[in-house]
Design a protein that fits this description.
two-stranded antiparallel sheet, about 325 residues, mainly alpha, 2 strands
Length: about 325
């Protein structure tokens, strides 16, 4: 029998050998990434102390009857059953969902209109954009005080004076259960729309200008250019803005707390204000923790749905 021969190597010589991968030691990995982890350490410690540990503690408390100095007592799902049996909680959930939908839609619409009006490279636009963006960076305490003055229910209130000039009667605004929630909608849209505007402006800057030129040459009207070029180009931005605005609407607290504190007669109560009042005013921390967990789950589910929808839209799925 003939001995097996190896295949000839082009150009002579021995066949190339595979490179040997050297396993990096843990010490080398620490030396390579140590500086990055060192810079991240302060933020990670703060997140651990003030976010992750309290979150785990809240999950535990939601299954307990919290009794300071007496020891907590495990009650299973009792807190969650009591929560969903409460008419106040269901009303607060309805107000939260309604506020999230209206405020999200309103802020996105106003933000898109502002972005279309202020989009461009003119030198004076930076000043107008800065002025429009001021409500977003202004402290909520200042915003609430300003709107309380504007919403003064008397006939000589600033907004009531304008209503009188156009022949409409005075309104109670945040002082009436019939108009308080709508008044809060207005404040939320006024404060959130500039934030959405800046995201839309960034999206508009990424649209190829030659598409507008080609559409104009083809005789497309302004509305057709908007519908066929601008909106498709902003599709990924719409997903981002919708997700952020919806989460912001679900977790609304500060403006409600400062403007109405859930009143009058619970007409503006949302989940966050109910959690605050249940935990701190009524000292029922277990029930408040259960409400916080429900809100957390709703926020996570909403985020996952939005991410799934964005991924399907990006992949072109029907």
């Amino acid at each position: 029998m003939l001995a097996p021969t190896t295949a000839p190597v082009r150009g002579g010589g021995h066949p190339p050998s595979r490179p040997v991968r050297r396993r990096r030691s843990p010490l080398a990995a620490i030396r390579r990434h140590g500086a990055a982890w060192l810079f991240l350490a302060p933020a990670l410690i703060l997140f651990l102390l003030f976010k992750f540990i309290p979150m785990v503690r809240a999950i535990t408390m939601s299954f307990q009857k919290v009794q300071p100095y007496l020891g907590n007592q495990n009650v299973g799902l009792t807190n969650y059953r009591d929560l969903f049996d409460s008419s106040e909680f269901l009303t607060a959930v309805w107000h939260t969902v309604l506020l999230a939908v209206v405020q999200t839609g309103g802020s996105m619409f106003v933000g898109l209109v502002l972005a279309l009006l202020l989009e461009g490279t003119a030198k004076h636009l930076w000043f107008i954009r800065t002025a429009v963006f001021l409500p977003t960076v202004t402290a909520m305490a200042v915003v609430a005080t300003l709107w309380k003055i504007l919403y003064f229910p008397g006939a000589d209130g600033p907004l009531n004076a304008l209503l009188h000039d156009v022949g409409l009667g005075p309104s109670q605004f945040i002082a009436s259960p019939h108009t308080a929630l709508v008044s809060v909608f207005g404040v939320g849209i006024w404060r959130s729309a500039p934030y959405d505007m800046m995201i839309f402006l960034a999206g508009l800057a990424g649209i190829d200008r030659t598409l507008y030129e080609a559409a104009e040459i083809d005789g497309a009207t302004t509305w057709q250019r908007l519908w066929r070029v601008t909106f498709p180009g902003l599709r990924p931005v719409f997903g981002i803005v919708l997700t952020l605005a919806a989460i912001r609407g679900l977790r609304v607290f500060t403006e409600i707390f400062l403007l109405t504190n859930g009143g009058p007669n619970g007409s503006t109560d949302v989940v966050m204000t109910l959690i605050y009042r249940t935990g701190l005013d009524q000292n029922n921390l277990g029930l408040a923790a259960a409400g916080a967990m429900v809100l957390l789950i709703a926020t996570v589910v909403l985020t996952l749905i939005a991410q799934f929808a964005r991924r399907r839209g990006r992949d072109g799925a029907p």
